[in-house]
Structure to design on (300 residues):
């Protein structure tokens, strides 16, 4: 059998984790998480990390293996995930990857564009500017330096925004000039499965998940992380809204409604990203697991 990576994608709260475990059990394989929010050991409830029971049900990798104080980017993940896939394929022709972070999925399945090294002082300055002048200031700076990148990247993601700006500033060239969209050759084939549902169902599932997170202690988790709110890892949905509440900017009820709204927007962006990939085989989130397994086995 040809070495294969089964990649499971889709919007947040759609059921990707449950599907990945069923496929891992069927193929007696291991799961690679491509959810960049789940890399950090200090972030648990707000990132929907798999439960202890789910982690026991199948071998997982890249779950809470880093600290929020570590610098770990998509290039690091590409390198580490490719090495792990090669290791898994030495004893099993099938590996499983799951996650909704589109850029991280692309890094493994198709590779990233090459960017030159830039003086780390540029990033340090940009992070300081983010803290002192806010996200919108940096967005306008990118719009001036590289309108094409401004129109195409996720400019509401501070890490992506700063990455584009540091390339512009550090090289004196537009970030978009380095985007070749050329795919790297991998020594495995990829079968990508997408889970989806009607937009109203996705939004209902997101709202329910946020309510469950609050019941499970997200507020207390965010309080413990509040002193580290300046770190990039914590500039993410579910935490930044509660940080604003702690600073007296919002009521708790408003913060919770903002988490739901921003998570819904995130899900919409995820679908926009993945819908561009015509190789993805989409299934309704309630599709019987046996139908999905039959599809994968035919592809294998």
């Amino acid at each position: 059998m040809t070495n294969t990576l089964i990649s499971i994608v889709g919007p947040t709260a759609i059921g990707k984790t449950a599907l990945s475990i069923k496929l891992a059990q069927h193929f007696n394989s291991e799961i690679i998480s491509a959810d960049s929010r789940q890399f950090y050991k200090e972030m648990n409830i707000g990132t929907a990390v798999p439960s202890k029971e789910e982690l026991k049900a199948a071998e997982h990798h890249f779950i809470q293996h880093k600290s929020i104080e570590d610098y770990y980017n998509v290039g690091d993940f590409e390198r580490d995930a490719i090495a792990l896939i090669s290791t898994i394929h030495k004893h099993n022709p099938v590996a499983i990857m799951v996650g909704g972070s589109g850029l991280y999925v692309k890094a493994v399945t198709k590779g990233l564009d090459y960017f030159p090294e830039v003086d780390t002082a540029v990033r340090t300055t940009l992070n300081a500017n983010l803290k002192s002048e806010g996200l919108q200031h940096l967005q306008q700076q990118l719009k001036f330096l590289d309108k094409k990148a401004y129109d195409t990247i996720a400019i509401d993601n501070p890490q992506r925004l700063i990455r584009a700006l540091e390339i512009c500033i550090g090289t004196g060239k537009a970030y978009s000039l380095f985007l070749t969209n050329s795919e790297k050759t991998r020594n495995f084939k990829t079968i990508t499965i997408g889970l989806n549902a009607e937009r109203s169902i996705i939004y209902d599932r997101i709202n329910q998940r946020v309510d469950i997170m609050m019941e499970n202690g997200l507020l207390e988790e965010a309080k413990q992380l509040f002193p580290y709110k300046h770190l990039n890892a914590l500039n993410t949905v579910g935490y930044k809204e509660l940080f604003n509440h702690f600073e007296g900017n919002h009521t708790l009820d408003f913060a919770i409604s903002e988490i739901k709204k921003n998570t819904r927007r995130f899900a919409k962006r995820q679908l926009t990203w993945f819908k561009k990939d015509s190789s993805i085989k989409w299934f309704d989130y309630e599709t019987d697991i046996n139908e999905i397994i039959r599809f994968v086995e035919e592809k294998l």
